[in-house]
Amino acid sequence: MYAGDSFVADFGTDGFHLWVVVSDPFKNDKEVLIVNLTSVKGRYTDPACLVAVGDHPWVNKPSYVEYYEAQIHTDAYLDRRHSARSVTPWQPVSDSLLERIRLGATSTQNLHGDHLQLLQDQGLIPPPPPPPPVPNP
Predict the structure, then answer these.
(1) The CATH number of the domain where 36 resides is what?
(2) Considering the domain boundaries, does residue 134 fall inside one?
(3) Contact 28, 4 (CB under 8 A)
């Protein structure tokens, strides 16, 4: 798989969603970060990365990236699922949407620290800012 590839699968807890490869499998094929898009339904919506109709052909209603459900798999596992046809490939997300998803990872409160660290280690998002200096007494 490649960064930006997308597929529909039931990896999550509530049915089929569009999943997007966010990390770079060529930099680390043992830890490939995927996130899903879910539609806005009047419940909690993470504002870190909203996705509008037209941002991707699969999106047919206002959606958002559900960072809380992000998962890490090996590239080999994702390829096996693809070969077994247990995922349905879709058009990759645009470079601009992939960048928005990655930037949203820096502002959401819902992405696990190890997922964020993977993106930072790959240089796909900036490292966190240093803590403010401690004032001298």
Answers:
(1) 2.30.30
(2) no
(3) no
**Does 99 reside within a domain?**
yes
**Domains identified in the chain, total number:** 1
Closest CA to 124 of 92, 102, 104, 109: 102
Mean pLDDT on 117-134:
89
Quick check: helix, strand or coil at residue 8? strand
DSSP string, 24-62: -TTT-SS-EEEEEEEE--SS---TTSEE-TTSSTT--S-
- Is the pTM above the cut of 0.70? yes
What is the chain's length?
A: 137
In sequence order, the 6+-apart residues with CB closer than 8 A to the CB of 28 are 118, 121, 122
The domain of 101 spans 6-121
Amino acid at 83: S
Domain membership of residue 137 (yes or no) is no
